[in-house]
Amino acid sequence: MKKALSKVFSVIGQIIAVVLVVVLLLDYINDLYSFLPEIGSKIVDQIVKYGSTLLVAIIAMSAVLKTNMIFTIIMILLILAVVGFMFAHDIIVGLFPPAKSSTESAVIAALLL
Fold first, then answer.
1. Backbone phi, then psi, for 66, in 5-degree steps?
2. How confident is the prediction for the chain on average, in pLDDT?
3. Alpha carbon 79 to chain centroid distance?
4. How many CA atoms lie within 13 A of 78 on its CB side?
5. How far is CA 31 from CA 19, 41, 100, in A?
6. Radius of gyration of the chain from its Cα atoms, rounded to whole angstroms
7. In 10 A of CB 78, how many CB atoms?
8. N or C, which end of the chain is more exposed by having fewer CB within 10 Å?
9. Runs of H (alpha helix) within the chain
10. Are 27 and 45 in contact (CB under 8 A)?
């Protein structure tokens, strides 16, 4: 069962990879010649962003389904964390204090010396 599911993920990953290569090529050509309207460019950017994340998640699941159940559960949790950061970035960032900028950290380090 797990190997059959792994093969399904592999085939889906291959299809998404081909589509993503075409969209990436379209994005690079659009950056050079700007032939897409603004909304088309935004759609292509979103497809690249979410498509690459989806591709990595599917390939990871395909690989981890060939191992034991603990690695599969860990990978599912990691993928859920990535998806959580993608869709709830503002909420998650609001829960933690902001990070110091690199220049602020450099000034503090210089003062401590």
1. -85, -10
2. 84
3. 9
4. 13
5. 18, 9, 33
6. 20
7. 13
8. C
9. 2-33, 38-64, 69-87, 89-95, 102-112
10. yes
